Amino acid sequence: MRKLTLSASRTTLARVLETCATDTTKILTFANEAQERLLNRPNDPVGSWMRYRACTNDNCLVWPRQIRTIKAWWLCNQPGIFRSEWFEAIGYYEGGQGKLDSDGHAGNQLIDRGTVCSFANVTATTAEPRKIQAVASHPSDNGKIIHLRYIDSFSSRKYSTISGTIQEGENLALSTSGVLTTSNVATGGLYHVVKATTNYPIRLYSWDVNSATQVELLAYYEPGETEPIYRSTLMPGLSDRGGCSDIDTDCTVNKSVEILAKLQHVPVAVDNDPFVLSNLAALKLMCKGILMEERHEQALAEYYFESAARELDGEISSYLGDGMLMAIKAPDFETWGPGGIYAV
Rounded to two decimals, what is the model's pTM? Predict the structure, then answer.
């Protein structure tokens, strides 16, 4: 399916927003809000689902930033059940009970574990203390700020003076040579990240204080990510299971895990960035509705919002079609005609 880019939508969006196509700030502001609100509707617009496949042997899976929720999933091509965060709180179930971990077995079940700000977290002990290191990929990002909130080795939230005010967390000025947190970090201690928009990706590492070396990659933040948040899941007992058969050769060691997921809004920033939605008419009408909303013309705003929803619903209906069509079955037409009438 084609993807609608910011460049292809500029002229249309500028017209309804009563501005010039070169007014990037206004177009981006309205277009990003419009897409986010359209994706938050109860229905799933065309283009908002995707299949994502990974080869892994890890029980804890953190999914890419564009994944909003998982609709269905497969392990080694076999369908499984996706469970909500409440599943581990309902008490007894066949084969076990209560909270599950990486060693438990509960069949093909993928359990929601909420959201996290990194795909891995710190693992530390008193004998092996850890800090977090932030590393810029390119000198053009040196000096830009990344704000980390974490639990320190004394099991307390880290506080520091930022812009003359004592605040929760700590600011680090990015550098290609890496910059460390001032305090040691507890196991699982990183819980919130705010990052400046950068030109290149940023990496976070767990840092061994004793040996002064990187231990593990914790996060890889794309340039446009400013408040990283990812969907996290647990697959009990995955690492203890055998390998997959009849799977592509790239998963011969690890297991093939595939999901069907609803996508979330990822802001567009430059001309070639694609929207999740490809329905320009719906995006245009939603932008117009937001413009009317900000002018306190609520009746007009609701009209445009409903019009945008109708455009998406019509697109869904057209995309799905009429469903399965029943084929008419009849005897050999060389001998028999429809309905038992002899052929001429």
Answer: 0.83
